[in-house]
Design brief:
Layout lengths: L9 H6 L4 H13 L1 H9 L12 E4 L6 E4 L4 E2 L1 H5 L4 H4 L3 E6 L6 E5 H17 L7 E5 L4 H13 L2 E4 L6 H10 L4 E5 L2 E3 L2 E3 L1 H11 L5 E5 L13 E3 H6 L10 E2 L3 E7 L7 E6 L1 H14 L7 E4 L6 H13 L3 E5 L10 H9 L3 E4 L1 H9 L3 H4 L8 E4 L6 H11 L6 E3 L34 E4 L5 E2 L3 E7 L9 E2 L3 H9 L6 E9 L5 E6 L3 E4 L2 E4 H9 L4 E11 L3 E10 L7 H14 L8 E4 L13 H8 L16 H8 L6
Parallel strand pairs: 4-17, 6-7, 6-8, 7-14, 8-11, 11-12, 16-17, 16-18, 18-19, 19-20, 30-31
Antiparallel strand pairs: 1-2, 3-13, 4-5, 9-10, 14-15, 15-24, 21-22, 21-23, 23-25, 25-26, 27-28, 29-30
Helix pairs in contact: 2-3, 6-7, 8-9, 11-12, 14-16
The chain binds 5'-O-[(S)-butoxy(hydroxy)phosphoryl]adenosine.
5'-O-[(S)-butoxy(hydroxy)phosphoryl]adenosine binds next to α12, β25, β26 and β28.
EC number: 6.2.1.1
Cofactor: Mg(2+)
GO molecular function: acetate-CoA ligase activity; AMP binding; ATP binding; metal ion binding
Length: 646
């Protein structure tokens, strides 16, 4: 690992919200007096009913309960829109850049207010009420933000499903939270390619009951069938809706959204975030970590289908009255200069992306970057997976011209916002390290027995105390919530990540320690891919592991045992890849498939994934103890037919 240190530039010590001394003092206070600290921070929002209680959280086994600001009432859309009208009604709120470089537009806070109110009234008109779940399946268009904020305005709970998920995945998510309303578009547009969102929605609804209304936003103008009584054109619905809608007073602990994420077992979990603590945390982290100042143009390249889009494209930035750029396209269309052309076109000051995008662009060479100016850039950010020091250095040197600090932000869908990160005016940077905890965050490293490790150490990463942005439960399954996050190490939140802490107290995330793989910064449960594969008529058994992939970080490696008499051909490999894509979505596509006559199992029948991981990594010299295998012979065959040869 690189141990190079980049000290805080002199001018950053004064321009940023905190220097090292202030970080240390505020961090100490945030841990010693969380009620005082978060009570003060909570005042950054407009409360309809001010809170008098700050924190009420217990991680106790069998009794996990997390509440923040529990007697306060507020409305998220009023905080993200209405309260800015007086001071910056005519300032841009959303700067939208379309897939086609010729398509862009700016939406002011005043316009945003009108769109959100109209959409909120249209939802009400169709019978959507406070507490109802609304599934959003949209491309990266401003209507996605309008839809989120419209739900928040009336107290409906949104569940966004990424446009890359299949009809089956969409159906599962609609069913799990019993959505009565779906908001989609005729088609999506990414990298010049069309995505049949309405057709996918129709196919999903065919599988599940209960959806009464489908709003269809016109994006490409494709001719899509509209089902009488159920489907309504967004443009028609908002045309006649009133441009004022009183925001609903929501209790701080009322649900704001559900977002599904893969785990190590079973179907995706509906991570539930609530209103007050989430918005306090999203807005506060956004301002401090990205050093947001009035008038800055801020761009996060994520999709609103992931938590990064929720917290750091929509809720955090808009709560701060920021100018937030929303990009419909992909990094390499029409060319691999696209990101930097957009930076120049809109004068972007703060840029937040993922290591996988950086690695992909590195492959396109420096010239594609250097032909652009990027003079407006001041700060760079990274999220989604550990950033390898080579990619960090390239990002710093080539993209940032060696003058922009990089904030490597570690967090999760479950955490609602960033937990471990540099503060740009306060933290010396080490390429590859997410550095130090944000205010109020108490990371600990524990060994397999739960013993807390001090000083420089490596172990499993847990968080000892609650923070306001923490998820509150798994929708409809509080027991699974407790089992997943609070049972391995009682009284602590278990992140599922391994981590090293160096002698300077810097944290280096080493990756997942459970059966979850991180593909291009997105989480994929190996169990989900396995159950998709075994649903194929020719497959008897499957085991899926991650392996190092140059661009994606981790690729998906599937060991597949075929039914007797079926031949393992390249044709069948393609068929299985297509099968998984159709079943779950393109992000779950196996990169490599190895046909295996047998899988390494213990005598009790448990698959030894450790061995499968080693072979997939092409590290079979270090298989470790294989003496407990029922049939050690299978390992030789697996090695002989391994698919990843370095
Ligand atoms: C997992 C969470 C929350 C943002 C997008 C992913 C990994 C995320 C980093 C980072 C090292 C990171 C972790 C984490 N991760 N950011 N800066 N350094 N690892 O959200 O799908 O909930 O995945 O992504 O393994 O547990 P997610």
């Amino acid at each position: 690992m690189s141990e190079k240190v980049y000290p805080v530039p002199q001018d950053w010590k004064t321009r940023a919200h905190a220097d090292a001394a202030k970080y240390n003092a505020d961090y100490t206070r945030s841990i010693d007096d969380p009620d005082g600290f978060w009570g003060d921070v909570g005042k950054r929002l407009d409360w309809i009913e001010p809170f008098t209680k700050v924190r009420n959280a217990s991680f106790a086994p069998g009794n996990v309960s997390i509440k923040w600001y529990e007697d306060g009432a507020l409305n998220v859309s009023a905080n993200c829109v209405d309260r800015h009208l007086e001071k910056r009604g005519d300032q841009t709120a959303i700067l939208w850049e379309g897939d086609d470089p010729k398509d862009s537009k700016a939406i002011t806070y005043r316009e945003l207010h009108k769109h959100v109110c109209r959409f909120a009234n249209a939802l009400k008109e169709r019978g959507v009420e406070k507490g109802d779940r609304v599934t959003i399946y949209l491309p990266m268009i401003p209507e996605a933000a309008y839809a989120m904020l419209a739900c928040a305005r009336i107290g409906a709970v949104h569940s966004i499903v990424f446009g890359g998920f299949s009809p089956d995945s969409l159906a599962g998510r609609i069913e799990d939270c019993a959505s009565t309303c779906v908001i989609t578009a005729d088609e999506g547009l990414r990298g010049g390619r069309k995505i049949p969102l309405k057709a996918n929605t129709d196919a999903a609804i065919d599988k599940v009951g209960g959806v009464k209304t489908v709003f269809v936003v016109t994006r490409t103008g494709a001719d899509v069938p509209m089902k009488e009584g159920r489907d309504v054109r967004y443009e028609d619905a908002v045309k006649n809706a009133a441009a004022e809608c009183e925001p609903e007073a929501m209790n701080a602990e009322d649900p704001l959204f559900i977002l599904y994420t893969s785990g190590s077992t079973g179907k995706p979990k509906g991570v539930l975030h609530t209103t007050g603590g989430y918005l306090v945390y999203a807005s506060y982290t956004h301002e401090l970590i990205f050093d947001y100042h009035e008038g800055d143009v801020y761009w996060c390249t994520a999709d609103v289908g992931w938590v990064t889009g929720h917290s750091y494209i929509v809720y955090g930035p808009l709560a701060n009255g920021a100018i937030t750029l929303m990009f419909e396209g992909v990094p390499n269309y029409p060319s691999s200069s696209r990101f930097w052309e957009v930076v120049d076109k809109h004068g972007v000051n703060i840029f937040y992306t993922a290591p996988t995008a950086i690695r992909a662009l590195m492959g396109g060479g420096e010239e594609a970057v250097k032909k652009t100016s990027r003079a407006s850039l001041r700060l760079l950010g990274s999220v989604g997976e550990p950033i390898n020091p080579e990619a960090w250095e390239w990002y710093y040197r080539v993209v940032g011209n060696g003058r922009c600090p990089i904030v490597d932000t570690w967090w999760q869908t479950e955490t609602g916002g960033i937990l471990i990160t540099p503060l740009p005016g306060a933290t010396d940077l080490k390429p590859g390290s997410a550095t130090t905890p944000f205010f109020g965050v108490e990371p600990e490293l524990v060994d397999a027995e739960g013993k807390v490790l001090g000083g420089a150490a490596e172990g499993n990463l847990v968080i000892a105390q609650s923070w306001p942005g923490q998820m509150r439960t798994i929708f409809g399954d509080h027991k699974r919530f407790e089992e997943t996050y609070f049972s391995a190490y009682p009284n602590k939140y278990f992140t599922g990540d391994g981590c090293r802490r160096d002698a300077d107290g810097y944290y280096w995330i080493t990756g997942r320690v459970d059966d979850v793989i991180n593909v291009s910064g997105h989480r994929m449960g190996t169990a989900e891919v396995e159950s998709s594969l075994v649903a194929h008529e020719k497959v008897a058994e499957a085991a899926v592991v991650g392996y190092p992939h140059d661009i994606k970080g981790q690729g998906i490696y599937a060991y597949v045992t075929l039914n007797a008499g079926v031949e393992g051909t390249d044709e069948l490999r393609k068929e299985l890849v297509a099968w998984v894509r159709k079943d779950i979505g393109p992000i779950a596509s196996p990169d490599l498939i190895q046909f295996a006559p047998g899988l390494p199992k213990t005598r009790s029948g448990k698959i030894m994934r450790r061995i499968l991981r080693k072979i997939a990594e092409d590290e079979f010299g270090a298989l470790g103890d294989t003496s407990t295998l029922a049939d050690p012979g299978v390992v030789d065959d697996l090695i002989d037919h391994r698919q990843n040869r370095k």
